[in-house]
């Protein structure tokens, strides 16, 4: 396939996600950035304080949720109350009138109180545990809110343009900078439909390009798209391939030649004789 054009595979405008003053632009125009790298930041002092406060509230809630000591004391009180009531009952059985009924009633009340205290402590423990989980959710929300003040690179690429500058106010959804991906480029061209016996989507491709100061260089890639419709005037279909460009040798806008390599290894090179290929938008 002749006259294939190399184009950007991804061209992204990176927006702000929170309103505020743009406090930092971390990457200059023209800089190469890795995926996940900091690109810019909206002033985040208030969000940072909110995150710190939420973290402290989680710590307090976790400490309050530790009811082991209270529950242990309540259980020991229950054991003591049961033992005292049992002794009183044995004394009454051994010697009639040895323990007044009022004392037995008092000991029974102490036992009931100890039992109720255990139940109450267990309920309190469940409540504070839910509160602790709520505080953890609030902390996660505060961390998300803080993270939204940063603009991170979604891909490995080059910063092309700053739309906003440090000190300017930005609104959510307002574009701050433009980023393009260069480690994978898109090759687009037209191929004679008669040369495609089957759908070659996913097939390997070989791209040949003449680079300045170098001999013809070959790159590998994969066919990602074959248009379902045929151009009625030319009998050709649009195809796209993704080309690996890890060393950033290739540049968008270059012309190249591309061969589709089917699974049987035979090359399909279109654009010869009466089936001359053209790039999108090229005059017939």
Task: Give your account of this protein's structure.
Helix 1 (45-65) packs antiparallel against helix 3 (101-147) and helix 2 runs antiparallel to helix 3. The protein is an alpha+beta fold and 284 residues long. Strand 11 and strand 12 form a beta hairpin. The protein has 3 domains: 12-41 and 148-180, OB fold (Dihydrolipoamide Acetyltransferase, E2P); 48-147; 181-261, Elongation Factor Tu (Ef-tu), domain 3. The protein is built from 3 helices and 14 strands. The longest helix has 47 residues, at 101-147.
Following the backbone from N to C, one meets helices and strands in this order, namely EEEEEHHHEEEEEEEEE
Structural class: alpha+beta
Query: Looking at the structure, what is the overall shape?
Result: elongated
Main beta-sheet annotation: 6 strands, antiparallel, barrel
- Total strands: the figure is 14
Segments where pLDDT lies below 50 for 5+ residues? 270-284
Rounded mean pLDDT is: 85
Quick take:
The protein is α+β, with helices and mostly antiparallel strands.
List descriptors.
284 residues; alpha+beta; OB fold (Dihydrolipoamide Acetyltransferase, E2P); six-stranded antiparallel beta barrel; 14 strands; 33% helix; 30% strand; disordered C terminus
Describe the secondary-structure layout:
Layout: E1 4-8, E2 11-15, E3 20-25, E4 32-33, E5 38-42, H1 45-65, H2 68-94, H3 101-147, E6 150-152, E7 157-162, E8 169-170, E9 175-181, E10 184-192, E11 204-210, E12 216-226, E13 236-244, E14 255-261
Antiparallel strand pairs: 1-10, 1-14, 2-9, 3-5, 3-8, 4-7, 5-6, 7-9, 10-13, 11-12, 11-14, 12-13
Helix pairs in contact: 1-3, 2-3
């Amino acid at each position: 396939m002749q006259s294939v054009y190399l184009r950007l595979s991804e061209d992204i405008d990176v927006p702000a996600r929170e309103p505020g003053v743009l406090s930092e632009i971390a990457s200059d125009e023209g800089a190469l950035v890795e995926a996940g790298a900091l690109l810019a930041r909206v002033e985040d002092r208030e969000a940072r304080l909110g995150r710190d406060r939420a973290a402290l509230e989680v710590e307090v809630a976790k400490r309050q949720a530790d009811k082991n000591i209270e529950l242990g004391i309540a259980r020991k009180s229950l054991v003591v109350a049961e033992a005292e009531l049992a002794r009183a009952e044995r004394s009454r059985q051994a010697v009639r009138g040895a323990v007044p009924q009022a004392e037995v009633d008092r000991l029974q009340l102490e036992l009931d109180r100890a039992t109720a205290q255990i139940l109450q402590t267990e309920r309190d423990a469940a409540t504070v545990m839910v509160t602790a989980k709520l505080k953890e959710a609030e902390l996660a929300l505060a961390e998300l809110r803080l993270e939204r003040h940063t603009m991170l690179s979604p891909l490995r690429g080059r910063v092309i343009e700053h739309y906003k500058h440090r000190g300017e106010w930005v609104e959510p959804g307002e574009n701050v900078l433009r980023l393009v991906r260069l480690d994978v480029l898109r090759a687009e061209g037209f191929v004679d439909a008669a040369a495609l016996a089957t759908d070659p989507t996913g097939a390997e491709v070989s791209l040949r390009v003449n680079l300045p100061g170098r001999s013809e260089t070959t790159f590998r890639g994969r066919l990602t798209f074959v248009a379902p419709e045929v151009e009625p005037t030319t009998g050709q279909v649009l195809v796209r391939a993704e080309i690996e460009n890890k060393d950033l040798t290739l540049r968008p806008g270059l012309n190249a030649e591309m061969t589709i390599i089917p699974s049987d290894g035979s090359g399909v090179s279109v654009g010869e004789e009466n089936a001359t290929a053209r790039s999108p938008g090229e005059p017939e």
